[in-house]
Amino acid sequence: MIKNTIGGQIIITSEVVNYPGVLKTDGVRLTENMRRQAEYFGAEFRPAEVKELSLDGDRKEVVTDKGTFRGLGIILATGASPRRIGFQGEMEFRGRGMAYCATCDGEFFTGMDVFVIGGGLRPPRNPFSLQNMPEGYI
Ligand SMILES: Cc1cc2nc3c(=O)[nH]c(=O)nc-3n(C[C@H](O)[C@H](O)[C@H](O)COP(=O)(O)OP(=O)(O)OC[C@H]3O[C@@H](n4cnc5c(N)ncnc54)[C@H](O)[C@@H]3O)c2cc1C
């Protein structure tokens, strides 16, 4: 069951280079191949938003906006959504100069001046992913 588009967070990135056996791809192509591979082995994808789970008994219930489904097991993989900052151009340049994951995308900015905008202790915890870059911290 997937709400919105298949692929999750990675579909907004234009370069993925860290998957074994895949020299270089983008998020849409990578996850499209994952979908086809899963379907080849019998998986079915249903566009639906999960609203509620009922876990009593052997037959678990998944209540969605497209109906209720039952099964013996449930795997939750609801992921995450990066917190938007809201500046002009943020959505337009997502995955094309605007990154939400220092570990994933840091190397694409090697040798460039970058702004690291982050709450909490996140940027200082990622020194290795950004160590080759001149940094501007906000
Ligand atoms: C800009 C960017 C670039 C990245 N680049 C890389 C990279 O190059 N290499 C790399 O390895 N990783 C990269 N990542 C990290 C990678 O995208 C994540 O690690 C990965 O997407 C996690 O996958 P996931 O399936 O756990 O979660 P997600 O991708 O978050 O997927 C969760 C899915 O669950 C769905 N969902 C949530 N709630 C419900 C509900 N109630 N009902 C139905 N569906 C629901 C969401 O719609 C979504 O489709 C990048 C991330 C970002 C944001």
Features:
138 residues; 3 helices; 16% helix; binds flavin-adenine dinucleotide
Summarize the structure.
This protein is of the alpha+beta class and 138 residues long.
Fold topology:
Elements: H1 27-40, E1 50-54, E2 60-64, E3 67-71, H2 102-105, E4 114-116, H3 122-125, E5 135-137
Parallel strand pairs: 4-5
Antiparallel strand pairs: 1-2, 2-3
Can you describe this structure?
It is a single chain. With 138 residues, the chain is an alpha+beta fold. The protein folds into two domains: 8-71, 3-Layer(bba) Sandwich (FAD/NAD(P)-binding domain); 83-138, no CATH class. The protein has three helices and five strands, in the order αβββαβαβ. It has helices spanning 27-40, 102-105, 122-125, and strands at 50-54, 60-64, 67-71, 114-116, 135-137. A three-stranded antiparallel beta sheet has the order 1-2-3, with no helix packed on it. Strands 4-5 form a two-stranded parallel ribbon. The longest helix is centred in the N-terminal third of the chain and has 14 residues, at 27-40. It is globular, with a radius of gyration of 19 Å.
CATH homology superfamily of the largest domain: FAD/NAD(P)-binding domain
Count of distinct structural domains: 2
* Average pLDDT: 85
Query: Using DSSP, what is the number of strands?
Result: 5
In the sheet with the most strands, the strands line up as 1-2-3
Structural class determined from secondary elements:
alpha+beta
What amount of the residues lies in strands?
15-25%
Largest sheet: 3 strands, antiparallel
